[in-house]
Amino acid sequence: MTERPSLVWLRNDLRIADNPALFAAARRGGPVLALYVLDEDPEVARPPGAASRWWLHHSLTALGDALRERGVHLLLRRGPAQRIVREVAEEIDAGAVFWNRRYGAGERTQDTAVKEETRAAGREAASFDGSLLFEPWTVLKADGTPYAVFSAFWRACLATTGPREPLGEPDLAALPRLGAVPSGGELGSWALLPDIPWDAGLAETWTPGEAGAAERLAAFGRVVDDYQRGRDEPGPDATSHLSPHLRFGEVSPHQVWHAISAGRSGAAAKFGAELGWREFNYTLLYNAPDLAGRNLRSEFDAFPWREPADGELEAWQRGRTGFPFVDAGMRQLWRIGWMHNRARMVTASFLIKNLLLDWRLGEAWFWDTLVDADPANNAANWQWVAGSGVDAAPYFRVFNPVLQSKKFDPRGDYLRTWVEELVDVPSAAIHEPAGVAGYPPPMVDLKRSRAEALAAYDTITR
Ligand code: FAD
């Protein structure tokens, strides 16, 4: 007798290979239905920003096509996921419902409720580890509490037997087909794509979906040896660009780890440690679900942030601060939905420490504009720069955007790529341009604003 169908509920795991939930469904042997629910309830998960919505649209398109080629339907529904999973499971009389785990508080509450409800209806329900190398409850200090220092956390991770091997691709085409496919929504009607076409730079830069992720991973594998030397330079840009693919689960960290880092030292190990920061940040999110809204170090609650003056926040957002490195980063973000890590640190430091604005204003802008906007990585990194986080950069470390520019983009290639007004400015003058037509003068005095930031910090440490 054929098994009853399996329902696979996909969320941040929009891939076929190394997808433990899909794999488990294929192993049961019955027909498989894949389901994606657009659940916009902020109590469950923070609604995606505009750039993430763009990505999601294209990623779902790619996944739907790839599954269809293998005889599996991707059903799209919109609304409260708990109710929809129940309804779809009933409609196909599913024998099992499978999914890969998420780590936000609302997400976990929802998953627990779905699990209980599914089992109460006499169906198998199981969740799997598809998105993290080390789930937050698996790597703890000797006293059972989570690590608060990255280096110790990562050492402890590396001292385990290591991340599991990737599962490969399940043979979906060999499975019996589902008889009647329930009716679903049209992706187009979800209006994930922008009304005003600001997405040309995104479309030129990225190929959302599993195939695009695999291409990036393969390309990075060929140049990984340059990572340690080049990862800080935004001009030649030696990093993997895997972040949005990881964010949407188009590639698993296990696939990345085993392709690049496992058992290797040098640049590959350094890259592995960056994946480790992602793990660490998820541990933070798991233990502090309100990471994007609350200072992890509570003394920062009394920090005297300024209210933004008229046009000030917009100048930062649109890359018109008069500091070329900051402006290049912010314009790169606006144009392609991604910014080099060095520029992320410098632009964030500028907002927090030179403009003395609350890090949450910057976090929210990044959330809306980054294609890799990630509930753990974005908030944790903003708190890292602000000094309000766990194992964060000390507040008094204020990046000087001019010195950073000279050090990491000495010829000004990155600046010229993103700030068109500076295209003809020679390298010697480009880091502190003066009187360039159309380019704004510096919006703050670096020395004075730095001193003011340190004085403000003093008020919370006294
Ligand atoms: P690579 O250098 O190739 O690194 C490989 C992977 O490791 C990345 O894809 C990412 O998954 C992980 N990684 C690398 N650096 C970090 C880090 N500092 N923290 C956590 N994970 C890391 N990263 C996001 O994925 N989403 C975000 O929303 C995000 N917001 C950030 C906000 C600020 C203010 C800062 C300073 C950093 C932020 N980062 C974020 C971290 C980092 O900048 C990006 O992960 C990285 O630039 C992505 O490019 P890449 O894939 O080429 O990175």
N-C termini distance = 73 Å
Arrangement of strands in the largest sheet = 3-2-1-4-5
| Shape descriptor | globular
Query: Strand portion, in percent?
Result: 5-15%
Protein architecture, described:
It is a single chain. The protein has helices at 20-28, 50-69, 81-92, 105-120, 150-158, 200-205, 210-223, 227-230, 243-247, 253-261, 267-287, 312-317, 324-336, 341-354, 359-369, 377-386, 401-408, 413-418, 427-430, 446-461, and strands at 6-10, 32-38, 73-78, 96-100, 124-128. With 462 residues, the protein is of the alpha/beta class. The model has no long low-confidence stretch (mean pLDDT 96). Helix content is 46%, strand content 6%. Helix 5 (150-158) packs across helix 11, helix 14 packs across helix 16 (377-386) and helix 15 runs antiparallel to helix 16. It is built from 20 helices and five strands. The protein has a five-stranded parallel sheet with strand order 3-2-1-4-5, sandwiched between helices. The site of flavin-adenine dinucleotide has 27 residues, from helix 9, helix 11, helix 14 and helix 16.
Question: Could you list some keywords that capture this structure?
Answer:
462 residues; alpha/beta; 5-stranded parallel sheet; 20 helices; 6% strand; globular
Question: How would you briefly describe this protein structure?
Answer:
The protein contains 20 helices and 5 strands. About 45% of the residues lie in helices and about 5% in strands.
Topology at a glance:
Layout: E1 6-10, H1 20-28, E2 32-38, H2 50-69, E3 73-78, H3 81-92, E4 96-100, H4 105-120, E5 124-128, H5 150-158, H6 200-205, H7 210-223, H8 227-230, H9 243-247, H10 253-261, H11 267-287, H12 312-317, H13 324-336, H14 341-354, H15 359-369, H16 377-386, H17 401-408, H18 413-418, H19 427-430, H20 446-461
Parallel strand pairs: 1-2, 1-4, 2-3, 4-5
Helix pairs in contact: 3-4, 5-11, 10-11, 13-14, 14-16, 15-16
Bound molecules: flavin-adenine dinucleotide.
Flavin-adenine dinucleotide binds next to helix 9, helix 11, helix 14 and helix 16.
